Amino acid sequence: GKAALDADIAAIAGQLKRLQEAGVPVLWRPLHEASGGWFWWGAKGAEPFKQLWIYLFNELTYTYGCNNLIWIWNARYTDWYPGDAYVDVIGEDVYADPHDYNAQSSLFHEVMAVPESPKLLALTEVGVVPDIDQIIATNARWLWFNTWGGDYVYSKAKYSDKYTEAELLKKVYDSEFVITLDELPDFK
User: Fold this and answer.
1) 135-162: per-residue pLDDT in tens?
2) Which of 11, 64, 93, 161 has its CA 20 to 30 A from that of 171?
3) Could you say which of 59, 110, 125, 167 is catalytic?
C-alpha cells in the first residue's frame, strides 16, 4: 500500500509543481471529511488520519518542494486535528435545509477553539448560501463559502431556487462584505 500511496503523491506533486511554476497558489483540501468515515482516509479513525495528513504534508512540502499550497483541514472534530504546523485554514461543510440561510455562527465559534493559534475559517462546502447580514450580525466571519453544484445551484441548465432563492444570492454577491471575481485585482 505505501508504494502505491507514494506513487500517487509523486503524481500529485508533479501537477502541483506545474501550478507552482506558473505562479498559481492552490487552495489544497486533501483528505476532506475524514471524520465522516465514508472515505478510506478516515475509515480507521483519528490517529491514522493525522499520521497520513502529516505524511502527505511533509512529502509535498519537503520532499517535493511544493510551496504554493494553502492547506485546508476539514475533518470537524478536535481529535482529528493534525496540528497548527500542518494547517492554514479550517474548513467546514454544512448542508442546511432549503432556504435556511443561517450563518452557522455556533459552528464558527466552536471551530475557532480547535487550533492553538488563530486560523482562518471557511465554509468549504455548502448547499444553501448563508445570509451575509446574519454572518455580519453574529460575527461569523467565514473567509469564503463554496456552494456545491448540481441541484443546489441549477436544474435543467437554469438557476434553481430550490435551496437558495435568487434574491438572497444576489444580496450576498452584491454585499460590500463579499468579494466576487470581478472585484479581484489583476494578478498578472
Assistant:
1) 999 999 999 999 998 889 988 889 999 9
2) 93
3) 125
